[in-house]
Amino acid sequence: MDLHRIVRVIRQCGRLRAFRPGRSLHAHIIKLGVFNDVFFANNLLAMYVDLSLLKDARRLFDETLERNVVTWTTMMSAYTNSGSPDTALKFYVQMLESKSETLNGFLYSAILKACGLVGDLESGKLIHGRVFRAHLGFDTALMNTLLDMYVKCGHLSDAQKVFEDILCPNPTSWNTMISGYGKEGLMEEAVNFLNKMPEPDTVSWNSIIAGFVCIESLVSLEFVCMMHRKGLKLDGFTFSCALKTCGCFKLVVTTKQIHCYVNKSGFGSCCFTASALVDSYSNCNELDEAIKMFDEYGRCNASVLDCLPLWNSMLSGCVVNEQNSVAINLVSQIHSSGAHIDSYTFGSALKVCINLHNFRLGLQVQGLAVISGYELDYVVGSVTVDLYANNRKIRDALRLFHRLPEKDIVGWSSLISWCTKMGQNRLVFSLFMDMVNLALEVDQFIISSVLKACSSLVGLGSGKQVHSFCVKRGYESERIIVTSLIDMYAKCGEIEDGLALFYCSTERDTVCYTGIIMGCGQNGREMEAVAFFKEMIGLGLKPNEITFLGVLSACRHAGFVQEAWTIFKFMKTEYKMEPCIEHYHCIVELLSQAGSFKEVEELIAQMPFEPDQTIWNSLLGACGTHKKTERVNFIAEHLLATLPEDPSILVTLSNAYATLEMWDNSSKMREEIKKVGTKEAGRSWIQIRS
């Protein structure tokens, strides 16, 4: 039998994915006694790789007595392309230990690709040295793979050196460098490469556009226009990038213009372009247009199986626009269709459950994710952690979080944020330290939450550690960080450090001024708080409700009655803000302590809501101070009507009556306290400096 013909048929079986004929040929080769021939073995290996039967390929490799560089290259390429580049690297080490093969450019290309995917820069540099010693610099394809390895490992300076050593860089060489600089956000360098490139193609321009999209820059749209003017054909990738920018900046008109161009260019039937349009309209809060686009595509391609990404985009749009009932219906349709639901579908479905505060439904979605094998997927896992935390099940959230093999910044940020909201401050600091020890990227929003936890703990030592971390990472000038640090120092009683930070800050906005006003008010620096308020008004900054609350609280502590009245009226007349109950608390207490009971009564009568316990308590305390016995019973009636069985109110009334020497009333309150029962004693702690 013609052995060369058998080899041709083996290759054909691989190309056509003909599993059974391929197996039969393998058996036939064994019968012919040529199985140990390395030529036949390599072709059989290639066939099993083409058939995606990696286990069979591995078994055949292990049984093969004679191996050459082609055998090893085939296995390394197979594992790299199937998503197991780490296994490919193990094969490379095994081959080097055997010292039986002379390596060539094809093998180096295969293993360099694996290094890039794994991010193994050290191995990549060692292979680079071997390539150099083997004088393979003339091989442009190999040099491009080396270039790509350095780019994927984030070492663009090394990639630049390799590029400069390539004798005849081809379009792939140029595009690899442009893409590398673009992904790192170094757009000036990327554009310089584009301008130097002899003949930039669609890939070159798309790489530049994608780079600007990643840094959320409108310049991406300028390059789309330039690309169009130069006569280059815009493709689906170009449209997707342009539409992502439109969605980010809510450019509805531009989205509609691109939509028209998409239809004229014949890309309207492309699933991914349709998905990008739905995303863009949704992010522009034009959900009706998104649904219209979705329905138009659905009339031509009705099945979920045809285009799950489009359904995911529509689902995400409903979640973003808080159309939760529509989103639930979409999830139901996707599930009923029998389509293989991916991590993005599960992630959006879980977000709907969070929005609806429906923990039971969330558990059902999680159960489906577990059955589908997505339980520990980093997207699904992060949202599930958020689901548990949102329902105040921090222990369950932590248990799942620690099981996740990959934890992205969103997962860490969400868990830390929820722990901060729930007062789990020591846990917040512990999670932060875990991130630092694992050398994970900690952004300013996480640091802000950690500083808030330090403020609640009154942990100056911990706060200073975080401050030091901010300085080392270059975050100390970020507005959100400066404000959080000022707040932390103020709450820890170190207002001088807070003031020093404020004065060093070059960009002071409303939030920054609010922080220092609150801090001064809490630390007995009331005059400075008022001065800072006047300063920010003079600079043209608009105070918010919290700013007014801070300055009014400072006036209350210092007894600045006239100043507080002026600011309170200023809030309504100048800034058209309706005061909240907290603002009224400050004014009522201030006027009450000043003995201005007539003004207090008029103010309470004008309030847009009923006075609460705090307001009545303020009046009660002032009655004791100013010996206003005639008003006490009236206030007591309102307090008891509000919360008749609250022991704290009964104690307050008893003390007030005792202060006014109204002993009979005080005794009655004491008797009521015995019936109701005393409240549980409070707890506190202090931090002792060694």
Radius of gyration: 35 Å
- State the major sheet: none
Low-confidence stretches: none
- Could you tell me the number of beta strands? 0
User: Between the first and last Cα atoms, what is the distance in angstroms?
Assistant: 90 Å
Rounded mean pLDDT score: 89
Structural class: mainly alpha
The helix count comes to 40
Tell me roughly what share of residues is in helical segments.
Answer: over 70%
Shape: elongated
Strand content: under 5%
Q: How are the secondary structure elements laid out?
A:
Blueprint: H1 3-16, H2 19-32, H3 38-50, H4 54-63, H5 69-81, H6 85-98, H7 105-118, H8 121-133, H9 140-152, H10 156-165, H11 171-183, H12 187-196, H13 202-214, H14 219-229, H15 236-249, H16 252-265, H17 271-283, H18 287-300, H19 308-320, H20 324-336, H21 343-355, H22 359-371, H23 378-390, H24 394-403, H25 409-421, H26 425-437, H27 444-457, H28 460-473, H29 479-491, H30 495-504, H31 510-522, H32 526-538, H33 545-558, H34 561-573, H35 581-593, H36 597-606, H37 613-626, H38 629-642, H39 647-659, H40 663-676
